[in-house]
Design brief:
The chain is an alpha/beta fold and 303 residues long. It is built from twelve helices and nine strands.
Length: 303
């Protein structure tokens, strides 16, 4: 991804917007959270490309890497940021004087396929997780809602909130960030790998989420869908399996497995829209974001 020089100018924002997230501007961005079970189902990849598709649709997008175990958005975008934008955002909120504009300026501006968005890079080392306080990040998201159209949040899988059992006083909660973002979300996508291991993991993770956080409206995204993993007619097989064994949560998308396109995008530090714009995976993620993109039809060779 290419860093964008300078910052997009905006109109004046009310002072202390972070303290009045639903204040006088009348603008409120939607918050879209990508979560999923352990085992690398591809939630970070889907979150990044979903954010890019929203930006290509003329939305003002902020992508937050709030994974306290293995942040990867900076790596996917080829950004070298030891400072961790997400940690800087939390420190700024804790200082007490902040607004949407100030928080956006902390995020790294990037341009992908001609679309501009901002990215709050995650923690380069997982040991720094205490720097992300759930309350501070929640206040930041509420403030950012006044300055953009869409906030995409990439969170970690674990949900257990029993850290306080090991402390006599109030304890930091590593998984509290995920819980806080899921609670503040307008849309939640649970990303699961479409194979014999990924589907049961997703079902168990959704049961755990319900036990910890109660009822949350969400949709399922099956990633890495292929005949090799599921068998003939993989989409139909997954739909039937989900109807039989899964909870009553709708499936929003079946994303095809395209290792070549994903590897090329990672190697280039970019997104599918720029590296593999006609791949089936890019088309499917664009559809998830509400954009219609046609896959490139291979030319028939005459013999």
């Amino acid at each position: 991804a290419r860093a964008e020089l300078g910052h997009r100018e905006r109109g004046p924002d009310p002072a202390h917007a972070g303290e009045q997230a639903n204040g006088t501007t009348g603008k409120r961005a939607r918050v879209v959270v990508f979560w999923g079970p352990v085992g690398s189902p591809g939630r970070s990849l889907v979150a990044l490309n979903y954010a890019v598709e929203c930006a290509l649709g003329d939305e003002d997008v902020v992508l937050l890497d709030a994974d306290t175990y293995g942040a990867s958005q900076a790596v996917q975008l080829g950004l070298l940021d030891e400072a961790a934008g997400i940690a800087q955002i939390c420190r700024t909120v804790d200082s007490g004087r902040f607004d949407a504009t100030k928080l956006e300026r902390i995020c790294a501006p990037v341009v992908i396929a001609g679309a501009r968005m901002r990215v709050a890079t995650g923690l380069p080392r997982a040991s720094r997780w205490p720097e992300l306080r759930p309350t501070a990040l929640r206040r930041a998201v509420l403030a950012l809602q006044e300055g953009c159209d869409t906030i995409v949040v990439d969170v970690a899988a674990p949900l257990e909130l029993d850290e306080e059992l090991s402390f006599d006083t109030a304890a930091p909660q590593r998984n509290g960030v995920t819980a806080a973002m899921l609670r503040v979300a307008d849309e939640i996508y649970a990303v699961g790998a479409a194979d014999s291991i990924g589907v049961p993991r997703l079902i168990r993770a959704l049961e755990e989420l319900h036990e910890v956080l109660g009822e949350l409206e969400m949709k399922v995204v099956f990633n890495k869908v292929s005949a090799a993993n599921v068998g003939a007619s993989p989409r139909q097989a997954l739909a039937e399996t989900w109807e039989r064994f899964g909870p009553e949560i709708p499936v929003a998308a079946y994303l095809p497995h395209d290792a070549a396109a994903v590897d090329a995008a990672l190697l280039a530090g970019s997104a599918l829209a720029e590296i593999a714009p006609h791949s089936g995976l890019r088309v499917a993620i664009a559809g998830l974001a509400g954009r219609r993109i046609r896959a490139k039809t291979p030319l028939l060779r005459r013999f």
